[in-house]
Amino acid sequence: MLNFHKEHKNLVLTAGGVFIALSILIAILPAFQMQGTEPIPDEQPLTANEREGLHVYVAENCMACHTQQVRNIEMDKVWGDRPSIPSDYFYSKKRMDVWRQSPSILGSERTGPDLTNIGKRQPSEDWHLLHLFNPRAVVPASVMPSYPWLFREVDSAYMPKDAKVVAVPKQYFNKPGKKIIASYDALRLVDYLKYLKQTDMPSGDINDFIPALKKIQAARTEGGAQSLDGAKLYSQVCAACHQDTGNGIVGAFPSLVGSSIVNDDNTETLIKIVIQGYNARTDYGVMPPFGDQLTDAEIAAILTHERSSWGNDAAPVTEDDVAKVRQYVEMELNK
């Protein structure tokens, strides 16, 4: 039994061990996991100007008041189309070099509104510049401080070439013959803020996200169950997220390779996920339901392909298996 009152060496070693363990669990492991994420297919990298704007954002400590993370709770729905996932930060959180980690931009305070989707909510450059010069000019009740050092007051007769003039209302700036122009840093900061838009993910409107489903549904009367090709159906319906390799996209869509759910002898959970969709509070995007889009035979063909590909070696899924689970799901919904 350790006696921390008398054995100070043990106290120091234990405290040090706990500190190291917590550091690994809370800081080091998440950092390594973050570096292993991949971008969402349509996600755009930051341009040179936008990345400079990110550096200005960090230098001005904007994350002290603003977050960039939509939580999977009701009160956060106003800030984004969906909860944030690791892949959302693939480009902005890339490691700067071997020795320097990317700057922390997620924030922890919600003194100001979340900025995850500010580029969609407010795409106007003029609005952002005026807001930075004096937030009360556009949001009367704002508690955000002004950033006058990001702007310059110049004589109208000696306006620099290509200067960006900020249209400031007279009650906030009224000096005849003078204008307010945005500095280089202000323009780059606005470039970064306009970049902040959530990348579109699969939604409930599956036909729009996966146009191939329309072709599949139209071809049913021609091919019938005998012509079902699980690999082809998977490529048309599932590969957009889970990829042709089945590896998914780290930080966005889970891998099917070696998945315990995909390879489980009991296929009920796997079938229910395809029929009902999946929206657990995890690090992955929402999977929409396919029960109304695919027949029992089509779902069986897709799942059989998944369970026999990429090194997976599990028994086939039959049309009867899917029908039984679908009947159970419908009974649960009608209770």
TrEMBL record:
<dbReference type="Pfam" id="PF02433">
    <property type="entry name" value="FixO"/>
</dbReference>
<feature type="transmembrane region" description="Helical">
    <location>
        <begin position="12"/>
        <end position="32"/>
    </location>
</feature>
<dbReference type="GO" id="GO:0020037">
    <property type="term" value="F:heme binding"/>
</dbReference>
<feature type="domain" description="Cytochrome c">
    <location>
        <begin position="48"/>
        <end position="200"/>
    </location>
</feature>
<keyword id="KW-1133">Transmembrane helix</keyword>
<keyword id="KW-0408">Iron</keyword>
<dbReference type="InterPro" id="IPR009056">
    <property type="entry name" value="Cyt_c-like_dom"/>
</dbReference>
<keyword id="KW-0472">Membrane</keyword>
<dbReference type="InterPro" id="IPR036909">
    <property type="entry name" value="Cyt_c-like_dom_sf"/>
</dbReference>
<feature type="domain" description="Cytochrome c">
    <location>
        <begin position="225"/>
        <end position="310"/>
    </location>
</feature>
<keyword id="KW-0349">Heme</keyword>
<dbReference type="InterPro" id="IPR051459">
    <property type="entry name" value="Cytochrome_c-type_DH"/>
</dbReference>
<dbReference type="GO" id="GO:0046872">
    <property type="term" value="F:metal ion binding"/>
</dbReference>
<dbReference type="InterPro" id="IPR003468">
    <property type="entry name" value="Cyt_c_oxidase_monohaem-su/FixO"/>
</dbReference>
<keyword id="KW-0812">Transmembrane</keyword>
<dbReference type="Pfam" id="PF13442">
    <property type="entry name" value="Cytochrome_CBB3"/>
</dbReference>
<protein>
    <submittedName>
        <fullName>C-type cytochrome</fullName>
    </submittedName>
</protein>
<dbReference type="GO" id="GO:0009055">
    <property type="term" value="F:electron transfer activity"/>
</dbReference>
<keyword id="KW-0479">Metal-binding</keyword>
